[in-house]
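lol so apparently i was supposed to do this last week
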Amino acid sequence: MIISKLAGALVPYTAGEQPAGKTIKLNTNENPYPPSDGVTEILRTFDVSRLRLYPQPDADALRSAIARYEGVNAENIFVGNGSDEVLSFAFAAFFGGNELPVLFADVTYSFYRIFGTLYGVKYKEIPLKEDFRLDIAKFKSEKAGGAVIANPNAPTSMAESAEDVLSIVKAHSDVAVIADEAYADFSSVPSLTPYTREYENLLVVKTFSKRRSLAGARCGYAVGNAELIKTLRTVKDCFNSYPVNAVTAAVAEASIADDAYFKECTRKIIDTRERMTAGLRELGFELPDSDANFVFAEHGAFGGEFLQNELRKRNIVVRRFGGERIKNRLRITVGTDEQTDLLLAALKDIVSGR
Ligand code: PMP
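anyway here it is w/ 4'-deoxy-4'-aminopyridoxal-5'-phosphate bound
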């Protein structure tokens, strides 16, 4: 047998497509605005001879910059090659070989299920309530070997209150609870990072991909108690000592210094999101108020596959997931105002049969 039993049984995550050519790309929740001037400058002046050497194994300079930004110490920060990798290491570090299942929602970021399978982790999916809210009471009452909560959740775009998520952290104080805050910068719910000082089982995972327009650089990080972070580092060092390359580390560090620019981009995205939400509702779409840089919309009269295909014919790419409850919903990234106008115009044509 050339292929292992494990690999033979894996069903990998399907990343959203990256189409070549001119499309309006609203399918992978990237930021529509360019990285900051500081990022451009660091790439322009990057000392290429540094590429001869391995990078800092624990990306110390970047970790210190993130720690200052988050108001914690460098020992409380772990960085990885995108938050996907950080989450993957966290599954191995905190849930690998668990007796009790790790809990996550049935409709959430599908990578959690895949990491679970990859690391042979027992998991239990807790169905979202009818209105797509997290079943907080169930998350608290189940016996658990851990929990992972995307807040705001993907693909629903909805956020639970900090108090509710913290109540899950408290209910499972002897196991790790991960708050995946990939979209928290776009939310009215504040990040849970300050609570990592108080709750030693809370790990908050964040990314440079969305707010900081650096999806292509691949950088994510975790904030947590020094013991949790040390364990993540151990897992990392059993895999690849240098997952964050020197260019990415420099670029990510530069982006932190340009926070005002990203704040402004985030404000624009939130404004556009509100306009997009109103426009979609006017066209007959039903969608929850979004706390993220995407919306999750359904039209009572048209199927999701039909709408997605019609948009594609008009060079607009959006994302759709399988599963009975959500197959008719489109997950649409909030783009620029101009892209949003084109999206709404195209959908107007489609729903009015033009
Ligand atoms: N968590 C969630 C909920 C996401 O939607 C994504 C983006 N697909 C990620 C984590 C990973 O982001 P990245 O690896 O780009 O940091």
